[in-house]
Amino acid sequence: DLNTVIHDTEPSRVNDAVRAEFRRKAEKLVSAGACGFGEMSVLHIAMQEKHSYSEAPADHPLFLELADVAAAHDVPIDIHMEAVSAPMKTPPSLADVSHNPAELPATIPSFERLLKHNRKARIVWQHIGWDNTGNMTPDLVRRLLSEHPNLYSALRVEEGNPRARPFRPNALTDGKGKLTPGWRKLIDEFPDRFVIGSDEFVGIPGVTRNMPDSFELTWAVLDQLPPDLARK
After folding, report:
1. pTM, rounded to two decimals
2. CA-to-CA dists, residue 201 to 128, 219, 221, angstroms
3. Cα dihedral sign, 208-209-211-215
């Protein structure tokens, strides 16, 4: 519900009344038992024609309002966002999907503004290790974790046959499911800032049939870590 409001509202149209109504909806969800907000979308690229493309800047006034609500009620915000450090052409493997734009907007600068807006708001960046732009490097995530103590990262192993999607930069695991050294080192450095995420399509006709299970692949990463680190 809240994601739709953000994407349907131009930032320039956000006034005190719009903020108050959005906050009312968010707090109503918390009162009803919500333990977090998500999955919210900053930049979502369509993987196929039946998949959706959406974008809204991470420093949209209503994202900032949501951060204040999340901080006040001590619940996290879960965000889906492609890593784009500066505007770039859409990778060829995704440019042929008709509703993807020719150019992707930068996401990292506005994401950092969201993180700085309210340090008490815990932000979980979803799908770390599933990169569609080539920008989601361990070095980028390391810098963001170092500079933003309220940022957390949710791991995801991409499902399917690597040969079916040749563009797989900065993957969490290699083609045999082994955790790559760069990501392993980062998890060692920030053991309290990573969580298990994953991504599943459920009940979508024509999409979910025979889909590989990324959750099991992601969970298997824990088996490659020492017990104390895996427990964290």
Report:
1. 0.92
2. 18, 17, 21
3. positive
In angstroms, rounded to a whole number, what is the distance separating the alpha carbons of residues 210 and 167? 22
Dist CA 203 CA 157 (whole Å): 21
Report how far Cα 215 is from the mean position of its chain's Cα atoms.
Answer: 15
pLDDT tens digits for range 49-100 = 888 899 999 999 999 999 999 999 999 999 999 999 999 999 988 999 999 9
Mean pLDDT on 8-20: 98
**CB 104, CB 82: distance < 8 Å:** yes
SS3 content of the chain, % helix, strand, coil (to 5): 40, 15, 45
Q: Three-state SS string across 102-127, please?
A: CEECCCHHHHHHHHHHCCCCCEEEEE
Selection from 77, 79, 135, 78 nearest residue 104 by Cα:
135
Cis peptide preceding 200, ω within 30 of 0 = no
